[in-house]
Amino acid sequence: MSSFPTALPSVDAIPLRGGPVLRWGVLAPGRIAGGFVWALHRHTDQRVHAVASRDPERASRFAAQYGIPRVHASYEQLVRDPDVDIVYVASPHSEHKRQALLAIAAGKHVLVEKPLALNAAEARDIARAARAANVFAMEALWSRFLPQTLLIERLLRDGVLGDIRLVAADFGGRFDFDPEGRVFNPALGGGALLDIGIYPIWLAHFVLGPPPHVHATGSLTQTGVDGQAALVLTYAMGAQALLHTTLFAETPQEAVIAGTHARLQLDSRFFTPGGFTLKAARSDQRLRWTDPSGLQGSEGLAWQAVAVASHIAEGRRESPLHPLERSIALLETIDAAREQLRAAGPSAHGHLFTR
Q1: Strands, DSSP E only, in 31-163?
Q2: pLDDT at 237
Q3: CA-to-CA distance for 40 and 47, rounded, in angstroms?
Q4: Which of 35, 47, 236, 254 is the most exposed place for a label (fewest CB within 10 A)?
């Protein structure tokens, strides 16, 4: 049995400044894109050079708000801009594949907001196109690049937690019902699983890998998208992930990774910069870690951006931390859960899916 550490190791986070710099172009400026651009300009040397929207006035307002020098009248014009190195796609989920392929066809690197696409089949199309064009492509699963995630990865690799038996995580929020809005509209890829449930599912994949078995239960909204879902992911060695997401209520948004030697409890909003407590399995020994950067909330998007710039400068076409196959596997799990919920109807009691 490994001994409980006397101190936590240091984190080798990528420096936010002083590294390679990319010129970014933003497709579909909205709230999510705004948080991304603000984090880049405030905390890194990365710079957004251009923005495009279906609504030129919206693009102009966005450019003025965030100090972006160039506004394009169309997505096609932006991806052809020779001064844009990489395109950030921040549109509704239903547009991710089309806009990613548009950028890739123009020879641009691309960072696509999570989820990478509506389903695993679309994600595979993006991966094939990016590889054929020899451009960098990644899903913007920003939590993977946070300092706390890098430290947790080291603890797992060093066996500090022992054999992992359980991952438990939830992400629920109270969303006002809007049948035409992004969250509830099936035509836009609405539903809890794709929008916020992806974070608990990502954590389970990060710790345990893609699950052989998925069981989902929950309920649908009146527009037919998944409004609430509980997932049990079961693994060959008996480990499980217990995950929950909902559009109907705000939940603690916490996560636990429990092993035979120790338990790691992540703070609320586990997917953002924060902290965790590591507790020994059979004693009161515990260690506390808090992100020393002081960054909060969407400010943590900065690490993702500098990681992408570093990967591209190294000549990589995928991230070694979050490669495209990981994004495809995430969507395979979500596809299985959504299929079970739809098949069960409004009460949405799922059935076992074998990978």
Answers
A1: 47-52, 70-72, 86-89, 109-113, 137-140
A2: 87
A3: 7
A4: 236
pLDDT tens, residue by residue, 122-179: 999 999 999 999 999 999 999 999 999 999 999 999 999 999 999 999 999 999 999 9
Task: Please provide residue 242's backbone torsions phi and psi, each rounded to the nearest 5 degrees.
Answer: -110, 115
Q: Which pLDDT score, from 0 to 100, does residue 344 have?
A: 82
Check: CB of residue 65 under 8 Å from CB of residue 85: no
Tokens of 8: 């936590």
> Would you state the structure tokens that stand for residue 347, as one six-digit string?
């009460």
CA-based nearest residue to 9, from 159, 208, 203, 209? 159
pTM of the model: 0.95
Cβ neighbours of residue 284 under 8 Å, at least 6 residues apart? none
- Is the C-alpha dihedral spanning 124, 125, 127, 132 positive or negative? positive
Within 8 A by CB and 6+ apart from 178, the residues are: 184, 185
Return the pLDDT at 218: 96
Cα–Cα dist 338/245, whole Å: 12
Q: Is 4 helix (H, G, I), strand (E, B) or coil?
A: coil
* Percent of the chain's residues with pLDDT above 70: 97
N- to C-terminal Cα distance for the chain?
33
Whether the CB-CB separation of 96 and 117 falls below 8 Å is answered with yes
Q: Which residues are catalytic?
A: 114
The pLDDT, as a whole number, for residue 347 is 58
Nearest to 159 by CA among 291, 5, 322, 274: 5
Low pLDDT (below 70) residues in the chain: 1-2, 346-355
Element (H, E) at 62: helix 56-66
> Which pLDDT does position 346 carry in this prediction?
67
